[in-house]
What we know:
The structure holds 2 protein chains of 2 kinds. Chain A is 84% helix and 0% strand. Chain A has helices spanning 3-6, 12-30, 37-81, 84-88, 96-133, 137-167, 170-175, 177-207, 212-244, 247-282, 290-293.
Amino acid sequence: MRPARLLRWYPPAWRERYGGELLALIQDTVDEGRPTWRLRLSVVRGGLRERVHQAVRAGTAAAKRVSTGWLMTVVAGLILGSLPWNIKAPLPPARAWQATAALGALAGVVAFTGVCVLAGGLAAAPAFIAFLRERGWPKIRRRVAWAAGATVAAGGGLAGLFLGQRSMSSAQLSHSWAYGIGVVATSLALVAALGLWASAATATAKHLKLGTRARAAQPLLAAVTLTAAFAIVPANLIWLAAIQSSLAWLVVGVANLALLGVVTPRRIGQAVRQGRRLRAAASGRTTISPSAQRTPGRRRA
Amino acid sequence: MAPSGLRRPNDPPLLILVSLADGPKHGHALAKDIEDFAGVRLGPGALYGAITRLVERGLIEPAGGDDRRRPYRITPPGSAALAGALADMRQVTRTGLSRLGLDPA
């Protein structure tokens, strides 16, 4: 194997930055001879380690952006989905207004989150269509297929749980092993589906050539979506507190709400400023800070 | 690893910082110098993996030169990190030698 071929084990960004240097080092090391197996192994191991390092770093960055929101949504969904008997249980009269208000707020927040996600999708739609027209589908096909498969599995699980709830009483449900396993399996499938769709969306977004407006709107849209996803949890907890007459859930729910009230203005303010900076940079009035433009493998180059 | 099973201080980032402490060097010169003073032969993959991490952390930086044989130099944070690591190692060395009765100081 020629030394230049060994560089294929490294990620492209790394090769672009360090590839020439590494090749020179290999050539200096082997002089006129052929690379030894030990040297080849060192390069292959280094390349694989670099790929893992970049994947972990990219995954961490993406996870920070995406996972928090959907994780909170999953937690909130589990609170609702794993306690179907709470929905069937009669409401304590003194707490009925609280439960109704919390459930209304919950439905509103969920709908609002959906609208935000839809708005983000619509903003990116022209770029996505252009990407598909440029034969981009094969680049994302596998991820989308996995996400769709997990969604079908989760949908099947939800349908099974729904049928189980209709055919059994609350007491039967709470003592049914099959139902319990179904809840866990469906929850895992839902988490997998959300994670895979997030992964597919992140991979797709890397290929999209978004317009200035869409790029500038992104930070604000992301901040609002994240806030809405966070708001699902306190609304859920307050509803749970009402139907169970639980002071502990109420305290946790109100504390969550207070935390949200503290964090949200700062998050929205940051997003607005970031959007303005992006617009200004696009119009040539100023430049984006180098730290915002760094790409993996090209730091301090 | 030594025959006793005890590891020698052969951490690639540390060796690279020690090598660069007396001036900039490119990859091949680094590998040769490290082999000379520490008896450790770093493969190209291990050497450039460590260089990448050190550059990311701002402990070393490119010192001009061409793209293929680019020399690197230690930065002030790199010097401080190296001094700290060596001071820690000196403390361990002193304590060990003193307890063995090999170095009463």
